[in-house]
User: Which sequence fits this backbone?
């Protein structure tokens, strides 16, 4: 709460407010009364023990999970919208993009076509039938392909990529859509240090255009890129603040970081 | 009232027959994911087996022991269909795991072949099978309310098979292996499960159950090359309404279609009844897109 | 002693492994590192028999495995933790572990040390594997492989998605296990793996390009390979 | 090129020029696969038997008959395709075939537009008389109408109509309803079940509920087996509620099992037990050809008759030309196993005797009543006052 | 580059097939030509089915319904024309004495043709909208569609007075005033069908080449993910489902004119499955595959059943099994065999060469 006040004071406008959200599976409460808010151009990390509820809350933001209580309000161009009752594609159209924990790209079309679907902003049947990608969009797409190192493989099918390469492709697709809010679930899992650093760099770059929520267990990476960190534990928020302050919290060390 | 009770029993009895006919499919389709269009032909194989057993009894054994054919027929119809299923799995089905639609087409082809084979071997016309005499009577309760022993017997048989399958699948190591293989073949193999053997065995069990059902069907219906086609759609509906992959679902599906169908038929006609119950199936799926007892799982939502 | 000699592997028409030689004796943690797409996963899948190996030898304690079916290799004592977890989503946690136990012809009870290492598995024993969180699934996958008591444990990026405190725990467990079995581990998390490994192979483009004890490896070259 | 084909086509299948060789092609078109194969394969067998006998006896016009067999596959469009193939490609002199009215209706335009000839061996609902078809089975007044009269006199006035859901039963029952009205009978139930329906418990409950004097059964195929097995299971016997079936002959009876059918009634023109010298010969020949196990029945016999009738007409015409054969056919008599049958030159149906029979313990059928002699065919039921309005075709 | 080349190969194949079809009346007897007219109708259905199955991953086991609706609409017109102002024969013996109101407008050919297209599309939109927004997928959708086929068949048979029951509608005399049995009429209908087939083929080519085609494939590969990427997948599915119904409806209308009969036996469960088989045998996920499949399977079925009237089921059954098992991509995938062999050879060469040279290479960089 204090955090929130602080940010309000500094005049940072939030893009997303999670208000008293609870999520239940049967009689198991995976998320209990969680509130937080993500500011514009902020990179927020959600960290916390396995099973704390990080993926669950990302699922809720992008419409994959039903929220049993509370609101998730997105402050976009079209005003404030509660996304808890919206369909996935509509949420996506608001400008919320999502990368999943397990890499998932479309296997039946080439890497190039995967990117093409992602980069297009108009999603109606009419536009996918009659409109071609603008030159600027194509260039942007080429740029991303280069950046994620898949330019040479662009006419191949994603099935021939290794795990790490698929992660990159998915991040690339996400970037291509230029969302206002990006949700990244373990984007650097299975990546080498070098790739991780490259990802960090990239995130800092796109942060200029959007806000990002990252779920990650790689603390080095978190330190490098996070503005603020929310620590989840058993479905509640244990702590929130900068990486430095959070790292000092004994509770966080006990349940999450360990002695290292 | 009497009519109502009679109708209720009719519904339950139709349900038990459906369940009996669908159990094998619940295994091969629900569990293994093979859209087995030849399921009906496994019913047929069981039915013809019962026919042959009966012929042999009449030809070689004294009339006094005729009724015992029933036990032999039940066992043999299971075995013959299971062996056939085993062979088919080894030759064909095993190349189709994970290719549901292809399995549909191939088994469709197999069903054509099996039907024609039945025609070549037994001729096109139906053949007659007599039920054992102790099943030919009915338990008269009151007035027109009487319960044929056949129906009661099939009900018991269906329940028995249901529990057998449940026990095998959820209470034994084999069953656990079967389920593991069906969910992730590579990983099951990497844990030392002989997936090939499990696949054949499971398909054989499913086919055997169909054969057994086919034997039971000889007491109440026709035995001919096209026997299977009469049941194939209904049995698929049964498995799907309840939720493929759930045994309880199949029980529900059989009850829904059996009791609902006979009720509709009672108040309208057989044709309209059929239309109405299928419409209900379509409607129900609107609310329960994966069947009533859909297996909910985080990992399954791609 | 586990050995790969001149192993080749193909995916359909693409050759992925070219002449891989590798040894992983009991009592030592052997690691295999390399960039994304180098062929590490393919190597482990080849060991397990999940990709085609047109040429080369795979042997465990002198017995050749490359002609055996997958399940037979598991029975001969390979425990496998695949990349991407591959738990059985509709089996309960308990059933998942029991499958592992039976792979090693173990019977009945799940040994306590599993639950001591991964307490969450005890708590969720009867939950469906597919409902677990990513990290929980990873823990389950490791538990499932370890519980079979294999002669060699092969792990593909076992720390992926696991919280830091549990990673330390996993490191400890693996170190303990090496007295009982050979361990071959594929990792991107270099700090972790170089810390626990006794011997290290570096792979690039489907070939082993260096090997040695972690301290002895040419650090510049290693860094260059990993970061290219 | 195209005009070439055109002339080719207008020549059609009459094909008297075609059989300048020493054989005459004749078509046989029945379902050898699919649901109707149950009934139709045996008719095909009978037709082949007749052809064989004729060939042994020297053929027709001194030429051997060469059967071309096609499978209608229980599908109307396939029947039509095969009919075209037989007429246009094989240029057969005539075709023996079909069972269901649907298949006959499907091929009718083909036979008419190509001036082909079809010999149809099965009893049917009437209301049709194409000059390209000879109807060897019973018209309604040779089966349904007398059967209802018989039941009315011997069993009572309350009738329950049960049939398969397709054209023959529905149309037959609309005739029965008119007739019942005329006779002062009461239709207490009317049910149709889809082809291949397997459970009759609900309908049997309805029958038990309304207690008719008899059930008039127009079920076809598999359904009969289910119905009669379950009828008996419900504790119903012919003594309690009699049934009369018009689509169960000896072959179907064998498939149902005598124990379930014993005592039930059927109506046909012929039974295997029919006592004529011709029938003795026919039954013997059929069994010799296809096995002791096999039985003969009405459609089988009609199929057999059809071949002989056509052969006689051709002999009389001295050619296989369709128009001339049709011309010659009127009045031709044939000593058939069922008794003497005569072609009615006007509507191309047969004069036939009518017989009510009862299924016995062996699954064979014993005659319990019959007309004195052949009955004149009346496909449009024009001689019955009550049947007015059933048809607008005259 | 590679994709360009692939497209070219199939284009040539398509062109060859269409040219062969166009030339058919010049080298085949008339009734065979009519048969191919029928097969082309089937090819149109197969093409539409491929759009929903091969591309979008929706397996419909009920497309006989849409085919039937198109066919029945057209057949009602033909039947009225044949009746020449009288009540169609089946109605009178089924107890009707007046033409049902629903039949009346079908006396107008334009209305009938419009309905042959509109009714299937409308039904597909309704069914599609409900099922796809309610997320009925995979085999559940397949079985649902099978239930539809069953319902359709049963209703058609059960309402004999309105539909002709199991006989269906047949015995047509004229179409648009022309003798329906006249060779000229038949030839015209043949070429109209071919033209429609080519046009629809081009339409599908256009769609699959555009981004919309990629979206369909994306839906097939991961519907949820396509949704997260911002695509309203239900809309796309309704669209493509309606498109396939549209094509089936047109095929139905063309079919009735040429074959001269439509009956419940042509629209039920069994024919619906057969339609799927044409697509699979030809090769789903390609456009020329299903066309080829429909033509080939039906020619083969005809030939086999003519030559082996009692044994043809064996041939067809074995064919399905063999093709699906050994050519999962359908007969169209035969064209990939040379490439596969080349790749195998390349692999083999690489294997042997690297086996020889790479060993010293490796020891050279070994560093300890
Ligand atoms: N569909 C479900 N049914 C039952 N339990 C569920 C379901 N989804 C999630 N859970 C439980 O909710 C808890 C939170 O899961 P979640 O995936 O959000 O964790 P997480 O924070 O993302 O963990 P990780 O870091 O391991 O990915 C876990 O204990 C998980 O088992
Ligand atoms: N199924 C497949 N079909 C074709 N090629 C594949 C397949 N899987 C992997 N490859 C290719 O094989 C190479 C090695 O892949 P592998 O998965 O073994 O890499 P890795 O070293 O495990 O990488 P990562 O660290 O990203 O998991 C990659 O270049 C990849 O493109
Ligand atoms: N004509 C008949 N029985 O369909
Ligand atoms: Mg997670
Ligand atoms: Mg890997």
Assistant:
């Amino acid at each position: 709460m204090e955090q929130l006040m602080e940010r309000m004071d500094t005049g940072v406008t939030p893009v997303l407010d999670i208000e008293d959200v609870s999520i239940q599976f049967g009689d198991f409460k995976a998320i209990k009364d969680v509130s937080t808010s993500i500011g514009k151009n902020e990179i927020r990390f959600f960290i916390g023990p396995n099973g704390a509820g990080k993926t669950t809350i990302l699922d809720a933001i992008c419409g994959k999970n039903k929220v049993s209580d509370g609101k998730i309000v997105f402050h976009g161009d079209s005003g404030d919208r509660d996304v808890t009752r919206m369909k996935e594609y509509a949420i996506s159209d608001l400008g919320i993009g999502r990368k999943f924990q397990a890499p998932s790209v479309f296997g039946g079309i080439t890497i190039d076509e995967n990117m093409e679907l992602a980069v297009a902003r108009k999603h109606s049947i009419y536009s996918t039938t009659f409109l071609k990608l603008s030159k600027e969009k194509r260039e942007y797409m080429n740029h991303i392909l280069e950046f994620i190192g898949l330019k040479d493989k662009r006419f191949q099918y994603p099935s021939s990529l290794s795990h790490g390469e698929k992660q990159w492709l998915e991040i690339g697709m996400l970037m291509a859509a230029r969302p206002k809010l990006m949700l990244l679930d373990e984007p650097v899992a299975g990546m080498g240090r070098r790739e991780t650093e490259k990802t960090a760099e990239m995130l800092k770059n796109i942060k200029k255009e959007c806000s990002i929520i990252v779920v990650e267990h790689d603390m080095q990476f978190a330190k490098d890129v996070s503005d603020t960190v929310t620590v989840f534990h058993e479905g509640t928020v244990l702590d929130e603040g900068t990486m430095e302050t959070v790292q000092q919290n004994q509770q966080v060390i006990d349940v999450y970081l360990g002695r290292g | 009232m009497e009519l109502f009770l009679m109708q209720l029993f009719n519904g339950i009895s139709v349900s038990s027959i459906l369940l009996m006919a669908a159990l094998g499919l619940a295994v091969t389709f629900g569990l293994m994911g093979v859209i087995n269009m030849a399921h009906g032909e496994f019913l047929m194989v069981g039915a013809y087996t019962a026919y042959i057993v009966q012929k042999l009894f009449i030809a070689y054994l004294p009339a006094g022991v005729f009724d015992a054919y029933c036990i032999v027929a039940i066992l043999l119809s299971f075995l013959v269909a299971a062996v056939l299923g085993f062979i088919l799995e080894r030759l064909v089905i095993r190349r189709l795991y994970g290719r549901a639609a292809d399995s549909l087409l191939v088994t469709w082809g197999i069903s054509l072949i099996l039907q024609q084979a039945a025609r070549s071997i037994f001729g096109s016309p139906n053949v007659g099978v007599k039920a054992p005499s102790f099943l030919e009577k009915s338990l008269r309760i009151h007035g027109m309310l009487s319960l044929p022993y056949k129906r009661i017997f099939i009900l018991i048989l269906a329940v028995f098979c249901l529990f057998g399958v449940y026990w095998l699948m959820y209470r034994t190591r084999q069953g656990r292996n079967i389920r593991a293989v069906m969910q992730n073949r590579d990983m099951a193999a990497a844990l030392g499960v002989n997936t090939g053997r499990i696949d054949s065995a499971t398909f054989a069990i499913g086919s055997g159950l169909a054969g057994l059902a086919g034997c039971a069907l000889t007491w109440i219906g026709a035995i001919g090359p096209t026997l299977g086609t009469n049941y194939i759609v209904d049995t698929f509906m049964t498995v799907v309404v309840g939720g493929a992959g759930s045994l309880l679902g199949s029980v529900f599906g059989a009850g829904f279609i059996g009791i609902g169908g006979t009720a509709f038929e009672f108040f309208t006609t057989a044709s309209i009844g059929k239309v109405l119950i299928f419409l209900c199936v379509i409607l129900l799926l609107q609310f329960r897109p994966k069947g009533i007892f859909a297996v909910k799982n985080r990992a399954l939502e791609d | 002693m586990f050995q790969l000699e001149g192993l080749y592997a193909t995916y359909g028409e693409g050759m992925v492994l070219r002449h891989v030689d590798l040894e992983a004796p009991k009592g030592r943690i052997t690691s295999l590192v390399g960039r994304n797409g180098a062929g590490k996963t393919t190597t482990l899948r080849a060991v397990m028999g999940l990709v085609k190996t047109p040429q080369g030898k795979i042997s465990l304690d002198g017995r050749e495995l490359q002609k055996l079916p997958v399940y037979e290799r598991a029975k001969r004592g390979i425990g496998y933790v695949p990349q991407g977890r591959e738990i059985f989503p509709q089996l309960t946690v308990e059933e998942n572990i029991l499958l592992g136990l039976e792979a090693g012809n173990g019977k009945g009870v799940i040994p306590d040390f599993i639950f001591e290492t991964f307490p969450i598995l005890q708590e969720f024993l009867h939950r469906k594997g597919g409902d677990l969180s990513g990290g929980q699934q990873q823990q389950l996958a490791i538990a499932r492989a370890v519980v079979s008591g294999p002669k060699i444990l092969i792990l593909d990026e076992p720390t992926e998605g696991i919280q830091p405190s549990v990673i330390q725990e996993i490191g400890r467990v693996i170190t303990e296990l090496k007295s009982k079995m050979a361990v071959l581990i594929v990792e991107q998390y270099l700090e972790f793996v170089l810390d626990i490994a006794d011997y290290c192979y570096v792979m690039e483009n489907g070939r082993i390009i260096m090997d040695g004890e972690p301290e002895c490896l040419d650090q510049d070259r290693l860094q260059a390979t990993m970061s290219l | 090129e195209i005009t070439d084909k055109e002339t080719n086509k207008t020549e059609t299948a009459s094909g008297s020029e075609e059989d300048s060789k020493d054989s005459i092609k004749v078509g046989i078109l029945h379902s050898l696969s699919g649901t109707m194969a149950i009934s139709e394969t045996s008719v095909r067998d009978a037709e082949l038997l007749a052809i064989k006998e004729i060939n042994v006896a020297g053929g027709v016009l001194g030429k051997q008959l060469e059967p071309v067999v096609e499978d209608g596959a229980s599908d109307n469009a396939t029947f039509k395709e095969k009919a075209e193939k037989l007429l246009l490609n094989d240029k057969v002199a005539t075709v023996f075939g079909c069972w269901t009215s649907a298949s006959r209706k499907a091929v009718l335009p083909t036979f008419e537009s190509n001036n082909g000839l079809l010999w149809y061996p099965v009893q049917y609902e009437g209301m049709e008389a194409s000059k390209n078809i000879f109807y060897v089975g019973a018209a309604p007044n040779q089966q349904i109408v007398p059967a209802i009269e018989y039941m009315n006199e011997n069993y009572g006035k309350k009738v329950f109509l049960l049939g398969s859901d397709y054209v023959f039963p529905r149309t037959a029952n609309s005739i029965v309803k008119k007739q019942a009205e005329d006779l002062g009978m009461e239709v207490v139930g009317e049910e149709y079940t889809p082809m291949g329906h397997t459970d009759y418990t609900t309908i049997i409950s309805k029958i038990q509920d309304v207690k008719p004097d008899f059930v008039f059964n127009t079920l076809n195929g598999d359904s009969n087996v289910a119905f009669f097995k379950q009828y008996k299971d419900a504790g119903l016997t012919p003594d309690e509620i009699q049934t009369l079936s018009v689509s169960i002959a000896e072959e179907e009876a064998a498939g149902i099992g005598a124990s379930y059918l014993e005592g039930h009634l059927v109506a046909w023109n012929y039974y295997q037990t029919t006592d004529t010298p011709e029938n003795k010969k026919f039954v013997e020949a059929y069994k010799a050809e296809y096995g002791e196990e096999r039985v003969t029945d009405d459609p089988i016999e009609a199929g057999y008759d059809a071949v002989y009738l056509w052969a006689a007409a051709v002999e009389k015409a001295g050619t296989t030309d369709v128009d001339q054969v049709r011309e010659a056919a009127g009045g031709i008599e044939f000593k058939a196993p069922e008794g003497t049958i005569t072609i009615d030159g006007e509507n191309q149906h047969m004069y036939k005797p009518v017989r009510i029979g009862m299924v016995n313990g062996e699954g064979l059928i014993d005659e319990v009543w019959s007309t004195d002699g052949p009955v004149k065919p009346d496909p449009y039921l024009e001689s019955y006052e009550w049947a007015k309005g059933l048809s607008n075709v005259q | 580059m590679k994709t360009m080349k692939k497209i070219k190969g199939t284009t040539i194949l398509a062109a060859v097939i269409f040219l062969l079809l166009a030339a058919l009346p010049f080298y085949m007897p008339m009734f065979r030509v009519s048969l191919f007219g029928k097969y082309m109708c089937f090819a149109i259905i197969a093409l539409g089915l491929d759009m929903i199955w091969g591309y979008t991953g929706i397996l419909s086991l009920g497309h006989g319904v849409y085919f039937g609706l198109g066919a029945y609409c057209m057949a009602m017109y033909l039947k009225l024309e044949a009746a020449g102002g009288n009540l169609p024969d089946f109605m009178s013996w089924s107890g009707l004495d007046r033409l049902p109101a629903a039949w009346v407008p079908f006396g107008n050919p334009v209305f009938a043709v419009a309905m042959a297209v509109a009714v299937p599309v409308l039904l597909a939109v309704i069914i599609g909208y409900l099922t796809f927004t309610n997320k009925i997928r995979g085999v559940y959708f397949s079985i649902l569609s099978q239930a539809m086929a069953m319902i359709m068949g049963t209703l058609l048979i059960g309402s004999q007075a309105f539909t002709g029951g199991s006989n269906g509608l047949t015995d047509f005399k004229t179409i648009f005033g022309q003798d329906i049995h006249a060779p000229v009429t038949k030839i015209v209908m043949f070429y109209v069908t071919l033209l429609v087939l080519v046009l629809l083929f081009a339409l599908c080519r256009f769609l699959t080449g555009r981004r919309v085609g990629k979206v369909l494939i994306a839906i097939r590969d991961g519907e949820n993910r396509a949704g997260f990427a911002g695509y309203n997948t239900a809309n796309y599915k309704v669209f493509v489902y309606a498109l396939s119904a549209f094509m089936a409806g047109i095929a139905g209308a063309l079919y009735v004119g040429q074959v001269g009969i439509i009956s419940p036996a042509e629209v039920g469960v069994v024919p619906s499955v057969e339609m799927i088989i044409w697509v699979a045998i030809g090769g789903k996920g390609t456009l020329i595959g299903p066309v080829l499949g429909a033509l080939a399977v039906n020619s083969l079925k005809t030939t086999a059943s003519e030559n082996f009237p009692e044994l043809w089921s064996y041939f067809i059954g074995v064919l399905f099994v063999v093709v699906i098992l050994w050519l999962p991509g359908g007969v169209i995938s035969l064209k990939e065999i040379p490439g596969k062999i080349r790749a195998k050879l390349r692999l083999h060469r690489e294997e042997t060469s690297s086996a020889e040279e790479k060993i010293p290479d490796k020891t050279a960089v070994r560093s300890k």
In short: The first strand of chain A starts at residue 14 and ends at 25.
